[in-house]
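Record type: monomer structure entry
Structure origin: computed from sequence
Chain ID: A
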Amino acid sequence: MIRLEGAWWLAAALVTLVACRSARPRTAVPEGLDPASVPNRTIEVTAERFEYTPGEIRVAQGTLVTLKVTALDATHGIAFEDFGIDVELPRSQSREIRIYAAEKGEHVFRCSRFCGLGHYGMKGKLIVE
């Protein structure tokens, strides 16, 4: 039996969890952004055997980034939680992902489809400078 006076920490943890999960991600490309008015950069990325190549991507703030992502060996996924992006990458097919790098910072991307024993370590970083 849980004593109510001793369970304050549980209530605080639940409130924190709900607040963190309900935070809205940034928009990947703001509505109304004119691609011709900002710098554009296209980067080819591969997903294979539990890693992305390149695993670290650096772009200048204010750049519209197009990632051309190809899974080489199996079905993978790529998810940018900060931008609400989750794209399946079927084997040998390319997908394009567009992100406007509006603010400086780091954005982790991860494989979002289970791809084997190394799946949970399959991640990379988009660094906006």
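Annotation 1: The two ends are 52 Å apart (CA to CA).
Annotation 2: The longest strand covers residues 40-48.
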